[in-house]
Backbone:
């Protein structure tokens, strides 16, 4: 896929949106609903040769300054309704290609049967993408879901296979609603294998309260494939323009594996506490600000991450001197823990988006800052979004990473990146 193709889509933005028409027939309940989108993405990354992750991934390859990647994604959503039963699915097909590799992904992010015999009870069975927590960029209480990508929080995530129910009751008075959601999540070598240790039937639950216009959740995950944990979250509108939210989670018997510069791996068991506090503010000129502070109790300290980066430097020296890479092998084995998104302990998230500035309709620019407060490194991501063509979104986004040697964003594989995305809905 060439840049010219996506730029051509951008130039087509002069096409006017269709006039809105109201048709009552469109609101009739249909037994089968189907939709989705096709997305094309072209990306260029400027690499960071001084970064530890560049050294780990390119030590035995020819040096590179840039890496271009093309990606195509097809997502299909469907719902079939018959009486009290509803079957929902979300299929995902992706192809990613660059000069070094090609990857294909075909899976169902969600596929489950829902039975709702009355408004106060629902039973769901299948692959479900749960959304627990009130945080925008992170969810410490999201015990039965895959983590968000703080750089793309709207990205749909793959669910887990489970059985879940919802019991809902409404009342008059200060306590308006109670909802209880029990969950059973099995783990084996074939089912939910990436959730944790196999051969466990994991129990989890969420209790929701709407009390005096405040949303409150109590969440719990029992001991099994993961260590036991519990948490609470809340969200409240202080005014029509200001919302405040927070999450708190306690993880008992958490197991953390860390590595020394010489390659020795140690395992520590401890209790960890993670929490988040954030707000969302809508200014008079339709500017939305989102601010969050996140304490990751299961993260690595600054010294621990620097030990990992020194291990990679030692591995490179060993490879250059001997032609062997045993230290790199150890680094690759443990790198998923260190190289994951936001592996540190304290983060700040700030996003500002402006709706239709200078009276440019269907146009929304935004900028996002993610900062590691311990090592003072950060990523800065400006974005331009245009939705003025019927069923078509066009997005141009760039990212700059900055940090000193030994810092999270200073040791990433990329120094900066730009991407152009066209998404067509049907």
Residues:
């Amino acid at each position: 896929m060439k840049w010219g193709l996506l730029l051509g889509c951008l130039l087509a933005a002069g096409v006017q949106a269709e006039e809105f028409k109201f048709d009552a027939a469109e609101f009739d309940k249909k037994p089968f609903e189907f939709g989705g989108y096709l997305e094309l993405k072209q990306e260029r990354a400027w690499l960071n040769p001084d970064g530890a992750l560049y050294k780990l991934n390119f030590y035995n390859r020819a040096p590179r300054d840039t890496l271009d990647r093309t990606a195509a994604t097809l997502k299909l959503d469907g719902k079939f309704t018959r009486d009290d039963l509803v079957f929902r699915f979300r299929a995902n097909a992706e192809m990613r290609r660059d000069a070094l590799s090609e990857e294909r992904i075909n899976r169902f992010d969600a596929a489950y049967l829902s039975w709702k015999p009355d408004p106060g009870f629902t039973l769901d069975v299948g692959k479900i993408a749960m959304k627990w927590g009130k945080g925008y960029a992170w969810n410490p209480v999201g015990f039965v879901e895959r983590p968000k990508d703080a750089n793309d929080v709207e990205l749909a995530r793959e669910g887990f296979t489970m059985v879940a129910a919802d019991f809902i009751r409404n009342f008059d008075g200060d306590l308006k609603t109670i909802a209880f959601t029990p969950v059973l999540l099995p783990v084996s070598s074939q089912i939910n294998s990436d959730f944790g240790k196999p051969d466990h039937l994991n129990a989890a639950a969420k209790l929701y309260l709407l009390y005096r216009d405040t949303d409150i959740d109590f969440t719990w995950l029992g001991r099994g494939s993961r260590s036991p944990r519990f948490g609470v979250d809340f969200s409240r509108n202080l005014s029509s323009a200001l919302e405040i939210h927070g999450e708190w989670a306690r993880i008992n018997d958490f197991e953390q594996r860390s590595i020394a510069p010489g390659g020795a791996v140690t395992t520590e068991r401890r209790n960890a506490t993670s929490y988040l506090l954030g707000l969302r503010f809508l200014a008079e000129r339709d500017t939305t600000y989102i601010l969050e502070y996140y304490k990751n109790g299961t993260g690595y300290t600054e010294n621990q991450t620097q030990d990992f980066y020194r291990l990679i430097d030692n591995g490179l020296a060993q490879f250059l001197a001997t032609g062997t890479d045993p230290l790199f092998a150890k680094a690759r084995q443990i790198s998923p823990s260190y190289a994951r998104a936001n592996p540190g302990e304290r983060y700040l998230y700030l996003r500002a988006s402006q709706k239709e500035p200078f009276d440019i309709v269907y146009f929304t620019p935004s900028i996002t800052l993610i900062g590691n407060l311990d090592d003072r490194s950060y990523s800065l991501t400006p974005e331009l979004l245009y939705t003025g063509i019927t069923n078509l979104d066009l997005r141009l986004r760039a990212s700059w990473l900055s940090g000193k040697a030994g810092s999270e964003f200073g040791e990433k594989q990329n120094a900066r990146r730009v991407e152009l995305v066209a998404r067509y809905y049907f």
